Amino acid sequence: MMGPLIYSTLFGGMDYDEPFSIDVDSQGNTYITGSTETTDFPITPNALMNVHDNITKAFLTKLNDNGTTLLYSTYLGGDESTIGLSITMDTKDNIYILGATIASDFPTTQGTLYESPIGGVDMFISKIGTKITQKEGIPGFIIPHLILISLVSFVAFVLYFKKKINIYS
């Protein structure tokens, strides 16, 4: 038998928003990633990216443990479509977002495997630091690996590569 409904809330903007993945940190806060076409999507003041230019963007949103407070929310992307497909946390509550983009200016950090687009639909993994609340500064942002994603019957296979490879279909 199921217990009582703990919380249920609506979230998003006036246009098309689609969540793809959810995770919970050690304090019970909820993290959501997906894609949005909404220019009025709820974004917090310390967002990594707070401007939506009518192009599909990935998003990262953090809600408190009872769903009553928006703790953090940001767009993620560039000059073309970007979607967040999966989210997970490590033991230190760092956030990892896996997604895909066709943006030529997707934000990367210096010294990572690929700092500029490879071409076509590029995969990304972004690591965002643990301290993301409305009162704290901008979190860290790194992209440590190229990731190949194959969506087959709604199952994602993830392979890590240490060097550039050519994939033929």
Characterization of this structure:
This protein is mainly beta and about 170 residues long. It has one domain (about 15-160). Helices cover about 0% and strands about 40% of the residues. Strands 1-2-3-4 form a 4-stranded antiparallel beta sheet, with no helix packed on it. Strands 5-6-7-8 form a 4-stranded antiparallel beta sheet, with no helix packed on it. Strands 9-10 form a two-stranded antiparallel ribbon. Strand 5 and strand 6 form a beta hairpin. The termini are far apart. The model is unreliable at about 135-169 (pLDDT under 50).
Sequence of strands across the biggest β-sheet = 1-2-3-4
**Main pleated-sheet profile:** 4 strands, antiparallel
Strand content: 35-45%
Helix content percent band: under 10%
Q: What is the helix tally?
A: 0
Output mean pLDDT.
78
Secondary-structure content class: mainly beta
Query: What is the rounded distance between the termini?
Result: 47 Å
| Rg value | 16 Å
Order of helices and strands: EEEEEEEEEE
Name its key features.
mainly beta, four-stranded antiparallel β-sheet, globular, disordered C terminus, 169 residues, single chain, 10 strands, 0% helix, 40% strand
Give the helices and strands, then pairings.
Layout: E1 17-24, E2 30-36, E3 57-63, E4 70-76, E5 82-89, E6 95-101, E7 122-128, E8 141-142, E9 146-152, E10 155-161
Antiparallel strand pairs: 1-2, 2-3, 3-4, 5-6, 6-7, 7-8, 9-10
